[in-house]
Predict the structure.
Amino acid sequence: MRKNKKTPFAKSKAAKRFAKNTKRRSSPPTYESLRNSYHETVRIEGLFSATERGFGFVTADKGYNLPADIFIPAKFTKNAISGDRVAIEVKKRELKRNTDSQFHIEGQITEIIERGIKSFCGTLILDARLVGRNFSPYRVIPDNPRLGFEAEIDDIKSIDIGNKVEVKLLDYGSGPRPPKGEIIRDLGKTFSLGANYESVLFEHGIRTEFPIEAMRCAEAAAKEEISEKGRLDLREMPIFTIDGADAKDLDDAISLEVTKDGYLLGVHIADVSHYVRYGTPTDKEAFARGTSVYFIDKVVPMLPVCLSNGVCSLNADTDKYTLSAFITLDKQGEIKSCRIENAIIRSKVRGVYSEVNDLFINKSKSKFYKKYKEVYKSLTAMFPLYQTLQKRAKLRGVLELESTEARFILDENGMPTDIIKRDRGDAEKMIEQFMLTANEAVARYMCAHSLPCVFRVHEAPSEEKLTAYKNFIQNAGLSTLSLRAKKLSTAAFEPIMTEAAERGMENVISRLTLRAQMKAKYSEIRDDHFGLGLSYYCHFTSPIRRYPDLSVHRILKYAMENGEQSAIKRYTKFAADSASSSSENELKAMTAERDIEDLYKVIFMEKEVGKEFDAVISSVTSFGLFCELENTCEGFIPIEILGDGFKFREETLTLGRGHKQYKLGQLLRIRITDANVLRRRIYMEPVE
């Protein structure tokens, strides 16, 4: 009797039925329809992301509305590369019933619809095992370990073996045959700072050169002469800026008037939209960049320097255009009204955080008093308002969670010589409170006038994140009573933080609370900002370095000149496009900044290999421990280093074997075993 051969899914009746059904649909099948057809095999399309270990995940297209990514085992990736658009066949689905949001689908890739990566950066090597064979022995190993291949190179163009290069992929290989590529740029020695900088910029698509048309447009705008016509003249007011000592793009200036009922806070923001007109080459390039990217020793600006550091920057003793928000506050710091003006200002002093902090401490006896004498009265009035606003934030439940920021000390060659924690004084916190107030006030203003807006929104923690957080808190012996409210607010975390501080667990719980939060994003639809405890919030105060702020300015100015209905008609779609693009660009910039910071930390720690340090376990995973040093450098201890038999417990975030337990926040003596520049990772081992 002949055995029935298994029919491939692509040729099966189920596939034909599915193809027929999908033709009728205007959108992909939803999660609900997938769940209802539990036993059917279905095709789903999405974006593939690989891991260093070979397996990966597919983020399904939005129309499917799946609550989680789809897991793809290593043997079912079909040679897909991170960034590829793929079709997958869902082979298994397991719905975990403990929460509605904990969800797992496993599938296999059946088709690569479109390749996402056309080129990459990596290190040129000569594989001695391939010398003398029928194909080239030259290979380029990608810097991104998730790419998971080595590209064959026929012509190395006199480039030194060991250099970092940019490669254009000519084909993607098949089966055992590797992809083939062509070297299009030599970046220099693999372990050099410059080559690695270039690699990070390339990997994240950070645009460093401005198109000629954008530069010409910006330079022409920058040459325009200043005129007070059509603007509120504020040049005699005690307006001034406060920024870091090395800041070049000064977005914001402040003023304050104490009134009978409270305060009139003036937040005067560079009128970038006057110089960057909608649809111009400069505007199109700014939209594509979305944000300035701030690295350790350089900035990749959103706007050409003639604008960002030149005509737009609110330099002292120079006439500048601003969009000024005058915010009326009562004595309790509550916003009563907001008035927006096209203005012209002349900043009285270029304030520096460290100097203003010294003034707050030493007052008129400060060595900087003379410099700030003209605005000293305003500064002394600002301090009580700052304290009031800070108390108000505390009452809303805004948490000041531990987030260590590093400050790098560089030598004359730009190499790191020291890394220390960055401290924030009252001057930094005061400016932050004033900018938060302006952002809230402008968001309220735009909603009151029914104007389109690019809002800054922040969702409450997801059910999945909150469940994991509660489990850990309970296992740590802390009360979760405050988290049982019908509508969660940031205030719910305060009792937990207070109890954690009393029991010496503040740092651990602070880290965990921070990780439980969702990422903020931009949206054309108003929603709450959970982290700030605000119902209205947008970004208004940094248009030199953020496109959403420039978008808000543009909409405001157009409405002031042409009326609200006209602004609604012209800018509603623009607000949505700006929000979507800005969210993507922000994530890209943040990842690039973090990668460069990691690179500098690895370079700094190279000289410390073999040395011992005290560290704190900052993260516990199923594959090892991450430990943070006092100088903020974080390293990794692979689970293999710990020995056999260690098991990961997700509910307690521990790696344990018998009585030996490694847990979050635990102090540990470690030894640096490697500082890998290519992987931008520091490796450690515990010192027993």
Remarks:
- Residues 119-190 form a domain with the OB fold (Dihydrolipoamide Acetyltransferase, E2P) fold (CATH 2.40.50.700).
